[in-house]
């Protein structure tokens, strides 16, 4: 670590929790200028831990299980997240209090304040939330990074477009994600979708997810036989995976963006407003391997099967579609039986959850989508 970085880092971590946002921004800009975005994000994570915006308990209070699958050769994962469960409980209590307290005047159904906009910085309940903003492409497309208060892993950031704009998946998303990865190559850049009940999280404001060093199972999936096409500097392939998905890998960012972008737009055009995707972008496994991006096809007609809703009633997002189920803590009279099922039949549970959220895996259509991508790439 260079001497100047060490000095800047120590000074930053000594800033008290009430430090104004402008000061945080200035100091992180200095750290980024000295050592790059990843070092600035490291510092923000450590500072937010010290300030109490995130806690070790929230990061570590998770039971993680792994299930090797002989059929696909993948190791699927499952996490039971205690901290997220407590958070959902608190939200549910608040919602019920609003409808059941006698004489309570409920808030009219007007527009609710945006959960991602910058006005949340330092607001009640988020007193120590701070962000780091940057110009992504040097032409004024600005994003700010914030930590999610309920991380799935340590170093779980949400890059948010500075301007309040609805979530929209397009070729532009791939451009933004490649630019984010170029600034922080040690991270995975993920995107939830833009259609409710089809892999979406917050629809009202454009954002991505970035997690340090995360490689989810779908990235290691085998190509389906005979379903691979060359693109400049790499290839596009249909995956042998429980959810209809395609992987683009290669050394040329532009070709990847063009090919994956064409497939994304083509899929969306087949059922406008309903067909959408989740995206998962990572650096290749070796230094000369460029990038890999996986497109997971989504449509709100395909959801978690009825029999699994006692484990998970919420929608399934990009992390789960990519091979890691996130379950709330089992409760009630069935809790013990559910825990047993999770431990003993976890593989079947995760694969059925993923498969239930998949549009039909139609080989003919997959071939057409691949041709379209190869022609564009
Ligand atoms: Zn907003």
Q: Uncertain regions: pLDDT < 50 for 5+ in a row? A: 99-108
| Average predicted confidence as pLDDT | 92
Instruction: Provide the succession of SSEs.
Output: HHHHEEHEEEHEEEEEHEEHEHH
Number of helices: 10
**Shape type:** globular
Main beta-sheet annotation: 10 strands, antiparallel
Indicate the structural class.
Answer: alpha+beta
Could you estimate the helical fraction of the residues in percent?
25-40%
Instruction: Tell me the β content.
Output: 15-25%
Tell me the total number of β-strands.
Answer: 13
Report the C-alpha radius of gyration, rounded. Answer: 21 Å
Distance between the termini: 40 Å
In this entry the ligands are:
zinc ion
Strand order of the largest sheet: 3-4-5-7-6-11-12-10-9-8
Topology:
Layout: H1 3-13, H2 21-35, H3 37-51, H4 56-60, E1 62-68, E2 75-81, H5 82-100, E3 132-135, E4 142-147, E5 156-161, H6 171-183, E6 187-191, E7 209-212, E8 223-231, E9 234-239, E10 245-250, H7 253-270, E11 276-283, E12 291-298, H8 318-321, E13 324-327, H9 335-356, H10 363-376
Parallel strand pairs: 2-13
Antiparallel strand pairs: 1-2, 3-4, 4-5, 5-7, 6-7, 6-11, 8-9, 9-10, 10-12, 11-12
The chain binds zinc ion (ZN).
């Amino acid at each position: 670590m260079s001497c100047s970085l060490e000095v800047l880092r120590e000074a930053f971590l000594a800033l008290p929790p009430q430090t104004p946002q402008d000061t945080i921004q200035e100091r992180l800009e200095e750290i980024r200028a000295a050592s790059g975005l990843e070092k600035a994000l490291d510092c923000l994570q450590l500072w937010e831990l010290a300030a109490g915006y995130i806690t070790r308990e929230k990061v570590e209070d998770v039971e993680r299980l792994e299930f090797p699958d002989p059929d696909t050769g993948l190791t699927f994962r499952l996490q039971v997240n205690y901290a997220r469960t407590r958070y959902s409980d608190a939200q549910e209590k608040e919602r019920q209090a609003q409808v059941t307290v006698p004489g309570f005047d409920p808030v009219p159904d007007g527009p609710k304040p945006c959960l991602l906009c910058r006005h949340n910085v330092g607001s009640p309940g988020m007193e120590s939330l701070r962000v780091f903003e940057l110009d992504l492409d040097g032409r004024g497309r600005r994003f700010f990074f914030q930590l999610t208060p309920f991380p799935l892993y340590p170093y779980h950031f949400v890059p948010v477009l500075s301007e309040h704009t609805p979530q929209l998946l397009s070729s532009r998303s791939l451009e933004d994600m490649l630019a984010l990865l170029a600034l922080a190559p040690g991270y995975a850049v993920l995107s939830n979708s833009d259609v409710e009940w089809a892999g979406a999280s917050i629809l009202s404001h454009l954002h991505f997810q970035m997690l340090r060093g995360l490689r989810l199972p779908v990235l290691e999936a085998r190509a389906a036989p005979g379903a691979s096409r060359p693109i400049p500097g790499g290839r596009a392939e249909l995956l042998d995976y429980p959810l209809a998905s395609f992987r683009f890998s290669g050394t040329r960012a532009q070709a990847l963006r063009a090919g994956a972008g064409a497939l994304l737009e083509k899929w969306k055009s087949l059922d406008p407003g309903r067909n959408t995707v989740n995206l998962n972008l990572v650096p290749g496994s070796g230094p000369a391997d460029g990038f890999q991006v996986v497109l997971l096809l989504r449509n709100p007609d395909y959801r978690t099967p009825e029999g699994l809703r006692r484990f998970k009633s919420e929608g399934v997002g990009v992390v789960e579609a990519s091979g890691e189920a996130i379950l709330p803590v089992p409760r009630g009279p069935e809790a013990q039986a559910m825990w047993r099922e999770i431990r003993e039949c976890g593989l079947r549970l995760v694969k059925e959850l993923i498969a239930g959220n998949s549009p039909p895996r139609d080989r003919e259509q997959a071939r057409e989508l691949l041709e379209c991508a190869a022609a564009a790439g």
